[in-house]
Amino acid sequence: MPLHVTDYTWTQTDSTVHISVPLKGATAAGVDIVSTEEYLKVHFPPFLFEAFLFEPVDDDRSSAKVGNGVAVFTLPKKTHKVWEHLMITTGDKETKREIRERALLTQEQKLSAELKQKAEKRQAEKKYALETMMKLEREERDRIQQMKDAEREKTTVELAAWQLRQKQEAQQNQNHQIQQNPGTKLPGNRQTDIRKNNQVHSDAEKKKKIRAQLPPPRTCGNIPVTFTPRVFPTALRESRVPEEEEWLKKQAEARRAMSAELEELEDLTEEERNPDWLKQKGDKCFSNGDYVGAVNAYSLGIRLNRKLPALYSNRAACHLKLRNLHKAVEDSSKALDLLTPAVSANAAARVRASVRRGSAFCQLELYAEGLQDYEAALKIEPHNEELQRDAQIIRDIIQGSAGTQNGTK
């Protein structure tokens, strides 16, 4: 149970409200703040300050400064007038609960919008950087191609000049030979053909020698591989090895399903990128009574990894505390979907998820559906006296409702 802060101070003008909350030794990093037009919460375990404001304020222009052991809030009023009180004086718990839930929903929407805006900004920056790199690479390719074209053109010109010189020299040699031996004919290309034949024969001999020096091809074979079989502590006639293997495979896939969300949440610390750490943080907030903080931790963990049933089941427990009954049913159902196949390794988790959904159904006065979930939990733990007692209470309520209806008829 949190300790409510009562030694706060506040002042006001016609246009602004100033609130000062002592932090009692807490650091700035350990302070959780939720602020909307009609609600202000400052939570630093185990202390809690809540203010259901007397009039709406301008949340977009509101500011908070945390330091030197105090949190100072500046809240511009929407209507310029002097308030009679800082907070509403009604003692209606239902009204306060509705205001608290609206504030939580507004805070979640605000955080979601900020994350989306940051993701869009990072995407635009990545796109600009990619386009710039592509432009530089294209310019570099064009420059290299121009150098290649210039070198190719230069080589072509030099080759043509060399061929022309060779032709001229051959013509001069032929004219010189004719002048020295005017009565003889040239042998044509016979000598050239002999040289070519000798060269071909020499190349064939070299290839034959190289092939003779090469080692023989390796012999093929098979390498036997054996694996140690996984043994489950279950009798052979009751063995559920396929279900156990499927459950282990799903757990391994859940640990690997974190790639896309991490790219969108680059601003998080290394710890905040770990769903297991977020689950522990949510559990700690839950034990301290900070159910909203626990919901935030579990929700971020679900964004990072949507395959871990414990995050949905624990968030369902928080929604039960906050009276978000439909959300509790939804999260419990998602946890039960992920807790398949039903094996001994996830039996306890299935019991918790079934009881939480059954409790939410009963609080929604859907007793038949709630009884089904309690009976499903009893099939797993048939000797659980507490479950037996709760299931019997639900049966009595259903039977009493049926008896009342029959009597009315």
From TrEMBL:
Residues 167-226 are annotated as: Disordered. Gene3D superfamilies: 2.60.40.790, Tetratricopeptide repeat domain. Residues 105-167 form a coiled coil. It is found in: Cell projection, Neuron projection; Dynein axonemal particle; Nucleus. GO terms for molecular function: nuclear estrogen receptor binding. One of its GO terms (biological process) is heart development. Residues 167-181 have a biased composition (Low complexity). Keywords: Cell projection, Coiled coil, Cytoplasm, Neurogenesis, Nucleus, Repeat, TPR repeat. One of its GO terms (cellular component) is dynein axonemal particle. TPR repeats lie at residues 351-384. InterPro entries: CS_dom, CS_DYX1C1, Dynein_assembly_factor_4, HSP20-like_chaperone, TPR-like_helical_dom_sf, TPR_rpt. Residues 192-206 have a biased composition (Basic and acidic residues). It comes from the Eukaryota. Residues 3-87 form the CS domain. PANTHER family: DYNEIN ASSEMBLY FACTOR 4, AXONEMAL (PTHR46492), DYNEIN AXONEMAL ASSEMBLY FACTOR 4 (PTHR46492:SF1). This is Dynein axonemal assembly factor 4. It comes from Poecilia formosa. The lineage of its organism: Eukaryota, Metazoa, Chordata, Craniata, Vertebrata.
